[in-house]
Design goal:
single chain, 425 residues, six-stranded parallel beta sheet, 12 strands, 12% strand
Length: 425
C-alpha cells in the first residue's frame, strides 16, 4: 500500500496570503492591543487651529506639534483642522530686523475683532458638524458653543491674576467670556501643575477634571556644531558670544529687569557679551527703548524683533546664556528650548518655571536684580559652572517630548469619550 504525502492546499503555495484562521488570529491580537474602536472607529477631534494664521508663538506651536505628532502617538485619533484647509500664502524666511520705532502693530477695534471671531467660530462649528466630529478641542482657553463634548486647554490665567499686564479690551473679554464658557467644557488640560492650581483657585474647577500635560521643545532645538550656527548667524552680523532673551515684549516678560540685570554686569563682560532681545513687539513695551538709553547701554543692546523659527535653534546655540526673569508663566518654553540646545539658563523662581526647569537652571527672584546679575556673571565667567549647567539642562530637556504630549492628549480625548466620564464641573 503506497503512502502519499498530504496534498498541499492552494493557500500553502502562496507566501503573501495567510489562511483565514491566521488572519482572524492576527485581527484579534490587534484588537487586544489597540481596541476595536481604535481600529474601525477613529476618534474625530475638531481642533481650533486659528492661531496658525499668524506668526507662531506658544499656542501656535502647541497646535502645530499636536497635528504633527498625533498620527504616530495614536493612529486612532484623527484631527480635523479647519484653518489648514484655507489657502495660505507661503511665507518666506524674514531677515532679522528690529521692531518698528512706531511700536507694536495697532490692534483692530474690539467690535471688529469680535465679529471676526464669531464668524470664524460659526464656520468652524459647521465644518465640525459636517465632518461628524466626536469631540471639540479648544487649545486656547475659551471654547465656542459646540453640541458635543469639549476639551479646553488653559495655558495660564495671567489676564485674570494680573489684569494690569494686558489691554483693557482683552481683560473685559476674559471677564465676560471665560467664566461663561466654563460650563461648556467637559474636561480641561493644563500645561503645568501651577496652571492647574490657578484654574482650581480662580475658576473653581474640580482638580479631578483637569489633566496636566507638559509641553516640550521641538526637535529642531538641539546642539549644533559651531560651524553650523555660525554660518547662519555670521551673515547677520552677530557676535560670537552674547546674552540672549527670547519672548514677546510685554509687561509680564519683565524686560526692565532684563536690562537692569545686564547693565549691572562688569563692563568687561558687557563688552564681550552684547545683549540680544528676540521677540515680536507686544502691548505695553514702549518703555524698553527709554530704559536702554537711561542705562547707557544702547551700543551693547540689539533688538532683533521677531526671529523666524528656523533661525531660533542657531540663535540659542550661539548664546552664552539665556536671561529670562519672567514674572508669570503657565509653562515657559524658552528656558527648555535653550537647555535642549546646550545653553545655560538664568531665570525666575516663581510661577511654573521651577516646575519646568527643575535643578537645571540658575533661579532667582525675578525682581532681585543683584541676585540675577550675580548668577549671570558666574555663568559668563566660570566655565566649569556653565558646563555643569549645560549638562543638567540637556538631561532635563530630554525628559519632555511632543510624542508624550500627543499621547497624553489622546488619553484625555478617550477619557472624555468613555461613557463613565460624563460629568462637567
Amino acid at each position: 500500500m503506497m503512502h502519499h504525502p498530504p496534498r498541499r492546499r492552494p493557500w500553502m503555495n502562496r507566501r503573501v496570503a495567510a489562511p483565514p484562521l491566521r488572519r482572524t488570529q492576527q485581527t484579534l491580537a490587534a484588537v487586544a492591543r489597540h481596541g476595536y474602536f481604535r481600529l474601525v472607529m477613529p476618534l474625530r477631534v475638531l481642533i481650533n487651529d486659528r492661531a496658525l494664521h499668524r506668526r507662531k508663538t506658544g499656542v501656535g506651536h502647541y497646535i502645530s506639534e499636536l497635528l504633527t505628532g498625533m498620527p504616530s502617538a495614536d493612529a486612532g485619533v484623527c484631527y480635523c483642522p479647519f484653518y489648514r484647509l484655507l489657502p495660505v500664502p507661503r511665507r518666506r524666511v524674514r531677515p532679522v530686523r528690529p521692531p518698528s520705532p512706531a511700536g507694536p502693530p495697532k490692534r483692530w477695534p474690539s467690535g471688529l475683532r469680535e465679529l471676526g471671531v464669531s464668524t470664524y467660530d460659526l464656520a468652524l462649528r459647521c465644518y465640525g458638524q459636517v465632518r461628524r466630529c466626536d469631540l471639540y478641542h479648544e487649545p486656547n482657553h475659551i471654547p465656542m458653543a459646540w453640541p458635543g463634548p469639549i476639551v479646553t486647554t488653559g495655558h495660564d490665567l495671567s489676564v485674570l491674576r494680573h489684569p494690569q499686564w494686558h489691554p483693557a479690551d482683552r481683560v473685559r473679554w476674559y471677564e465676560r467670556d471665560f467664566f461663561s464658557s466654563l460650563p461648556r467644557t467637559h474636561r480641561f488640560v493644563t500645561v503645568s501643575a501651577f496652571t492647574k492650581q490657578e484654574i482650581t483657585e480662580l475658576a473653581g474647577i474640580a482638580p479631578d477634571r483637569i489633566d496636566v500635560i507638559p509641553l516640550a521643545p521641538r526637535t529642531t532645538f538641539r546642539p549644533l556644531t559651531t560651524s553650523q550656527w555660525r554660518s547662519e548667524l555670521s551673515t547677520m552680523g552677530f557676535a560670537s558670544e552674547y546674552v540672549l532673551f527670547v519672548g514677546t515684549l510685554e509687561p509680564r516678560k519683565n524686560l526692565p529687569t532684563v536690562l537692569d540685570t545686564y547693565a549691572r554686569l562688569p563692563s568687561r563682560l558687557r563688552a564681550k557679551h552684547p545683549l540680544y532681545i528676540a521677540g515680536v513687539a507686544g502691548w505695553g513695551d514702549n518703555r524698553i527703548s527709554k530704559r536702554i538709553d537711561a542705562l547707557g547701554i544702547r551700543s551693547q543692546v540689539r533688538l532683533l524683533g521677531y526671529v523666524d523659527e528656523c533661525l531660533l535653534p542657531s540663535l540659542y546655540n550661539g548664546a552664552s546664556a539665556l536671561l529670562w526673569p519672567a514674572l508669570y508663566e503657565g509653562f515657559g518654553l524658552p528656558p527648555l528650548e535653550a537647555m535642549a540646545c546646550g545653553t545655560p539658563v538664568v531665570t525666575s523662581n516663581c510661577a511654573s518655571i521651577p516646575e519646568v526647569t527643575g535643578d537645571a537652571a540658575a533661579l532667582a527672584d525675578p525682581m532681585d536684580v543683584d541676585a540675577l546679575s550675580s548668577l549671570l556673571e558666574r555663568v559668563l565667567s566660570d566655565a566649569d559652572y556653565a558646563a555643569s549647567m549645560i549638562a543638567r539642562g540637556m538631561e532635563r530637556a530630554r525628559q519632555f517630548s511632543w510624542q508624550q504630549c500627543a499621547g497624553a492628549h489622546a488619553a484625555t480625548y478617550r477619557r472624555r469619550r468613555s461613557p463613565r466620564d460624563t460629568g462637567r464641573l
